[in-house]
């Protein structure tokens, strides 16, 4: 099937109300509509969903969308229904459906109104569903959060490994599109290999965030005073401070409050009501600062977060990138300040010591990259982007002077020598 440029833009407007494609979307969609395997790597917020939603709505048959989180799927499905209820529907197929609901979904698919069928990989394995889906027209299969297929990603899900075989049973030459925000070359290789799409055309957006300033400071006994000073210099601005433990989150939030800084704590140990109250206080700017574990941030879209501080260094550069990425979403200033001590690396190593050997090896390799980043004297932006398989011109690239090493070249940080309690 061929679609003209005009078709594509008209469809974008019709189904989503948008006037322009974002980034690489148009090329991705064209490639998929031509029936080719496609691989999309874009940072979070880059607009990956539309890369499969629009072609699904434009084509005959049903697109199968594999996604790991049912809550996430529900969100997406509801969003589509809100946009264009008359142009086809999206359904979720999962273990929570009653027999009657499953029957309804099947009828909608058979009558051709279901344009997208969201499934968790563990549901797709069910023989009953495979048999049924073999008998209907599948436009393509989209695998969202495709890094889940790789042990080198941050969210390995073994069920993703079955996808290639199942899709093979659904029909011949069903085009596949894999999408992820994890861009490390290792994960990338795992994805195309395990999905069986080594021939896929790759669409990779840049991961550079030119407005973010990266800084690493040695973590000393004065860290609390350092943080207080930094926050006071940025009074009135929104910021997130990440800590490794819940205990530290609560303690630091209290220290900040005592020092006249408006801050709330956030971690998964609070009940849902408390969590959403603290989150709202931050979003509504009743407080400047949220001190949090990594439980905070997923799906939070506050455009004007002006700083992200890491009280403790994260366990991978991937996490560091995701967490710092919450600063400066609006394109404005975003200061990313990480405190680093080798002692914290040893702590993280210790956490892993109970895990299976293979997992430990991967975990340690990821940690070594973090050490490299923290101790480097080169452009931190170049280091991060290199980690994501991207070349960065540290002289002329966008944001080239936006890190401590480039702006004020200094001697290498030897955090091993710093004293930390
Ligand atoms: P990702 O999955 O890559 O993290 P999403 O698919 O959730 O990103 O999209 C992020 C945001 O971008 C959404 O709010 C979406 O509506 C918006 N968006 C996507 N494509 C466009 C577009 N062409 N024009 C305007 N907004 C878009
Ligand atoms: Mg997404």
TrEMBL record:
Protein's name in the database: ATP-dependent DNA helicase RecQ
Enzyme Commission number(s) from the entry: 5.6.2.4
GO-annotated cellular components: bacterial nucleoid; cytoplasm; replisome
Superkingdom, taxonomy of origin: Bacteria
Family of the protein in this entry: Belongs to the helicase family. RecQ subfamily.
Gene Ontology biological process terms from the UniProt entry: DNA recombination; DNA repair; DNA replication
Native organism: Cellulophaga fucicola
Co-factor(s): Zn(2+); Mg(2+)
Domain Helicase C-terminal: 222-379
Protein keywords: ATP-binding, DNA-binding, Helicase, Hydrolase, Isomerase, Metal-binding, Nucleotide-binding
A Gene Ontology molecular function term of the record: hydrolase activity
Catalytic activity from the UniProt record: Couples ATP hydrolysis with the unwinding of duplex DNA by translocating in the 3'-5' direction
Positions of the Helicase ATP-binding domain: 29-201
């Amino acid at each position: 099937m061929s679609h003209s440029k005009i078709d594509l833009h008209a469809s974008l407007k019709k189904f989503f109300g948008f006037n322009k494609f974002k980034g690489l979307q148009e090329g991705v969609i064209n490639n998929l509509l031509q029936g080719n395997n496609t691989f999309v790597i874009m940072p979070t917020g880059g607009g990956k969903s539309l890369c499969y939603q629009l072609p699904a709505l434009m084509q005959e048959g049903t697109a199968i969308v594999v996604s790991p989180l049912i809550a996430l799927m529900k969100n997406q499905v509801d969003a589509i229904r809100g946009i264009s209820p008359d142009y086809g529907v999206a359904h979720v197929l999962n273990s929570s459906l009653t027999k009657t609901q499953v029957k309804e979904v099947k009828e909608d698919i058979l009558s051709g109104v279901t344009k997208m069928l969201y499934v968790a990989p563990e549901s797709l394995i069910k023989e009953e569903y495979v048999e049924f889906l073999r008998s209907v027209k599948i436009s393509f299969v989209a695998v969202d959060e495709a890094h889940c297929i790789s042990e080198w990603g941050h969210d390995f899900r073994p069920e993703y490994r079955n996808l290639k075989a199942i899709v093979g049973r659904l029909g011949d030459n069903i085009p596949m599109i894999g999408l992820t925000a994890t861009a490390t070359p290792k994960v990338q290789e795992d994805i195309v290999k395990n999905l069986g799409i080594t021939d896929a055309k790759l669409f990779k957006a840049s991961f550079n965030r030119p407005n973010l300033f990266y800084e690493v400071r040695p973590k000393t006994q004065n860290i609390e005073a350092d943080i207080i000073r930094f926050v006071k210099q940025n009074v009135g601005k929104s910021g997130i401070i990440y800590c490794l433990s819940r205990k530290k989150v609560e303690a630091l939030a209290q220290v900040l409050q005592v020092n006249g800084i408006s801050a709330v704590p956030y971690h998964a140990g609070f009940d849902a009501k408390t969590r959403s109250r603290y989150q709202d206080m931050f979003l509504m700017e009743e407080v400047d600062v949220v001190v949090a574990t990594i439980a905070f941030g997923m799906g939070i879209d506050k455009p004007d977060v002006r700083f992200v501080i890491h009280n403790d260094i994260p366990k991978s550069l991937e996490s560091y990138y995701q967490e710092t990425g919450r600063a400066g979403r609006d394109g404005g200033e975003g200061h990313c300040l990480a405190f680093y001590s080798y002692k914290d690396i040893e702590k993280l190593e210790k956490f892993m010591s109970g895990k299976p050997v293979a997992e430990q090896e991967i975990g340690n390799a990821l940690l070594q990259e973090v050490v490299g980043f923290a101790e480097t004297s080169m452009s931190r932006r170049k280091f991060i982007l290199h980690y994501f398989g991207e070349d960065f011109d540290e002289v002329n690239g966008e944001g080239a002077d936006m890190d401590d090493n480039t702006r004020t070249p200094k001697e290498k940080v030897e955090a091993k020598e710093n004293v930390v309690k």
